[in-house]
Amino acid sequence: MSYNGLLHKYGNLLQLPAHTRPITLLEGDTPLISAPNLARALGGGFELFIKYEGLNPTGSFKDRGMTAAISEAAGREVKTVICASTGNTAASAAAYAARAGMKAIVLIPQGKVAAGKLAGAVAYGGQVVQIDGSFDDALGMVVQISEKHPISLVNSINPFRIEGQKTSAFEICDTLGSAPDWLCLPVGNAGNITAYWAGFQQYNNLRWTGLPRILGVQAAGSAPLVLGHPVEKPETVATAIRIGKPARGEQALQAAEESDGRIIAATDEEILHMQNQLAMLEGIWVEPASAAGLAGLAKEIAAGQFAAQGKRIVAVCTGHGMKDPDIITQGMGKPKIVPPRLDALEEVIL
Ligand code: F0G
Fold it and tell me: How confident is the prediction along the chain (350 residues), in pLDDT tens digits per residue?
């Protein structure tokens, strides 16, 4: 059977208005890749799977929510959409808006957006505005603008974004036959953790798939949900989750509590180390923020605070490594240059 996108496959399980007009790039249906080498490196004795959301059309999980939000807006003949973004939402909004014939305006925090994301937003024709402030400042501005003007907000405050993002939980249950024991994922503005928990609960009510415990992971320099208060000047190398006042923070805490899970913080060093391990041991390159869930898992296991034995664990890797090439190329030496002679090559590689 051909794949026609998320709304076609799971639309009957999503609360979308009747006027919704599907705009799709055939997002979703991402692979759940087993990661035995990494599991072994973390101590072994459990099953580990990567839900590789970097393989969505614009390179991140945002496309799941965006197909829903833009489709709903398209059904209302919306002409312009707007979002604040650390980069991935911007690229996704611009792509889906392009396909729907809409204008997309994206506000990004100045100088803190990875190259692959900014390039995407521009390539898809989005109007990019840099704010001399944080993501949180930008989000406050787009909320006000969308109340004042006929411009639709497509951040995850938009309920249709959450509806679309629930589908990843459905896919995981469909692939495994049940929910995993644990789900680990990065937490920024907290839309995704909210969506996963809603999705798993809905599927469990319908199909008795069970519920996972949720391990949400923030970057230590941007960890308002761990600290219990907003962070005025969030900082982290994982720029996607450089957020100090998560819009759905309460729901994230609720998801962690109801699932008998928790939200913890991982340092930049731990995040980058995990990004490296995942790429080197499994051939899966994700952007730094996307390694946060796994970094948190590794940290918990190492601290003896996580009974992993015999468990089935899914880590959500939210965005592709190519989104943020600089983080790799900045730290590397220049590849060696050799003259075009076999003996010179042999000298270097043997
Ligand atoms: N991982 C990546 C790669 C992201 O881009 C984001 C959020 C998250 C995780 C966290 O998801 O916000 O639902 O908790 N990026 C947003 C953006 C903020 O603008 O692209 P969340």
Answer: 699 999 999 999 999 999 999 999 999 999 999 999 999 999 999 999 999 999 999 999 999 999 999 999 999 999 999 999 999 999 999 999 999 999 999 999 999 999 999 999 999 999 999 999 999 999 999 999 999 999 999 999 999 999 999 999 999 999 999 999 999 999 999 999 999 999 999 999 999 999 999 999 999 999 999 999 999 999 999 999 999 999 999 999 999 999 999 999 999 999 999 999 999 999 999 999 999 999 999 999 999 989 999 999 999 999 999 999 999 999 888 999 999 999 999 999 99
Residue nearest to atom 19 of ligand 1 (CA): 85
d(Cα 238, Cα 230) in Å, to the nearest integer? 18
The two domains 6-59+161-325 and 62-158 share their CATH topology (first three levels equal): yes
CATH fold of 6-59+161-325 reads Rossmann fold (3.40.50)
For the packed helices 249-258 and 191-207, what is the interaxial angle rounded to 10 degrees? Answer: 40
Q: Which string of b and e fits 85-95 if b means at least 16 CB within 10 Å?
A: bbbbbbbbbbb
Is the distance from the beta carbon of residue 289 to the nearest atom of ligand 1 less than 6 Å? yes
What fold does the segment set 62-158 form as a domain? Rossmann fold (3.40.50)
C-beta of 275 in contact with ligand 1 (< 6 A): no
Q: Which atom of ligand 1 is nearest to the CA of 191?
A: 13
- Predicted structure pTM score: 0.97
Contact in structure between 255 and 225 (CB atoms under 8 Å)? no
